Amino acid sequence: MQPIISIQDLSKVYASGLKALDGIDLDIREGEIFALLGPNGAGKTTLISIVCGIVTASAGRVLAGGHDIASDYRRARRLIGLVPQELTTDAFETVWATTNFSRGLYGLKPDPAHIERVLRDLSLWEKRDSRMMTLSGGMKRRVLIAKALAHEPRILFLDEPTAGVDVELRRDMWRLVRSLRDTGVTVILTTHYIEEAEEMADRVGVIRKGRIILVEEKAELMRKLGKKQMTLNLQEPLAALPEALARHDLTLKPGGQDLVYTYDTKTPDTEGERTGITGLLADLAAAGIRFRDIQTSQSSLEEIFVDLVKERA
Prior knowledge:
By secondary structure, this protein is an alpha/beta fold. It folds into two domains: 5-223, P-loop containing nucleotide triphosphate hydrolases (Rossmann fold); 226-300, Alpha-Beta Plaits, CATH 3.30.70. The protein is 32% helix and 27% strand. It has a six-stranded mixed β-sheet with strand order 6-7-8-3-9-10, sandwiched between helices. Strands 2-1-4-5 form a four-stranded antiparallel β-sheet. A four-stranded antiparallel β-sheet has the order 12-13-11-14. A hairpin with a 2-residue loop joins strand 9 and strand 10. The model has no long low-confidence stretch (mean pLDDT 85). Belongs to the ABC transporter superfamily. Keywords: ATP-binding, Nucleotide-binding, Transport. Residues 5-234 form the ABC transporter domain.
C-alpha cells in the first residue's frame, strides 16, 4: 500500500550554513500514529515545516497522499492539519470564529455540526463565545488543535503538543488522537518524551542532527529500551568473572568490587523469568560470591539516545 506521506532524500540548509536536515528518507503509513523522537535541535520541527509547506526544502521530495508538496501544494496541504508549538492565535477573535475561519481557508463550505463536534471533543464548547485573549495557555492550545481539525484533514501533525500543558489536556488530547486514528486519520507526533511515544505510537522514529537514525515498531523499540541495570557491591573483590557466571550479562567494574548486571524487563529468558535475577543470585551463591549492597537503575532518555546513536554510528 502506498504510504500517506513519502519523504525522499530530503535536505535543508539555511542561509547561515546550518544543515538542519540531511538526506531524510521516511514513509509514514496511512492510519498510524507515528512518533518522531529527538533531542532539541535534532530537526523535528524543520521536517514538519517542510512537509506542511511552511519551509522550502533545499533538496528532496515530499508526497502527501500522492501529491507533491511543492508542485501540487494546494491538494497536498488540504490533507494536512498542523498543531504548532507556538500559541499563535488572533487575540480578539472568539473560539468559534477562529476555528470556523480555519475551515474556510481551505475553501470548504461551513459545517457548524463538525465545528461543534471538534469543540466538544476538546472541552471547548462552553468557551465557544470567549475571546482568545481571555483563555489560559492550556485552552489556547486546545483551540490550536481545533483549528487544525476544522477542515477534516487525513494527516495531523502534533509538534510537541504536551509541552507545558496540564494533565487534563494531555488526557483529552490522547483520547482524541486515538479516536482520530480509529477513523483512519494519520497522526505524526513529535516529542522528546519517550513516555508519550510508549503511550500512543504504533511506530517510532528517532532523529538526531538532521538524520533519521532509527525507525521501528513501538513494541520492538520499547523492548530495547526496557533494559535496566543492577549493581552488586561485593564483599570481596574479584580478579575476573568466574566461568560459572558467563551466561549472565555481567560487567566487572575496575577494581573488582562491583558487578553490573544488565537485564531486560520485557522479554522472559529461557526459564520463563523476565529479569533473570533469580538465576543470577543462585549462581552467585553457588560460586561463593557474596555482596554487601544492591542498587538498580534505568537509563535516562538522554542515555538511551546516546546508545541508539552508538548502535547506528
